[in-house]
From TrEMBL:
Pfam families: Lum_binding. Catalyzes the dismutation of two molecules of 6,7-dimethyl-8-ribityllumazine, resulting in the formation of riboflavin and 5-amino-6-(D-ribitylamino)uracil. It comes from the Bacteria. Its EC number is 2.5.1.9. It comes from Barrientosiimonas endolithica. Lumazine-binding repeats lie at residues 1-74. PANTHER family: RIBOFLAVIN SYNTHASE, RIBOFLAVIN SYNTHASE ALPHA CHAIN. Pathway: Cofactor biosynthesis; riboflavin biosynthesis; riboflavin from 2-hydroxy-3-oxobutyl phosphate and 5-amino-6-(D-ribitylamino)uracil: step 2/2. InterPro entries: ATP_synth_asu-like_sf, Lumazine-bd, Lumazine-bd_dom, Riboflavin_synthase-like_b-brl. This is Riboflavin synthase. Residues 1-74 form the Lumazine-binding domain. It catalyses: 2 6,7-dimethyl-8-(1-D-ribityl)lumazine + H(+) = 5-amino-6-(D-ribitylamino)uracil + riboflavin. Keywords: Repeat, Riboflavin biosynthesis, Transferase.
Length: 83
């Protein structure tokens, strides 16, 4: 399944990283400039709404929280703890 990658989320998505679509935890199988792909196994197709998704349907995308932790750590390097 190939989806459009929202530009504001692009920096959080990496090949073989984690992504959640409509609440389903998945692995990014392929990544291009403005698209990404996931491979859906039969169990996922059977047990989740992704098995009934049609071309053009909107999908809720949640990026890996680890990517956001890294972004925050880089933006705010170690500081002394304040009481
Ligand atoms: C990490 C992960 N990656 C994938 C994937 O890339 N493709 C896929 O079809 N299923 C994956 N799964 C398992 C799904 O999260 C799981 O099948 C559904 O949540 C249903 O339980 C998981 C857990």
């Amino acid at each position: 399944m190939t989806l459009t990658l929202p530009p504001h989320l692009a920096r959080y998505v990496v090949a073989q990283g984690s992504i959640t679509l409509d609440g389903v935890s998945l692995t990014v199988a392929d990544l291009a400039d403005d698209t990404f792909a996931v491979s859906l196994i039969p169990t996922t197709l059977e047990l989740t709404t992704l098995g009934r998704a049609q071309v053009g349907d909107p999908v809720n995308v949640e990026v890996d929280v680890l990517a956001k932790y890294v972004e925050r750590l880089v933006a705010h390097p170690a500081q002394e703890a304040r009481a």
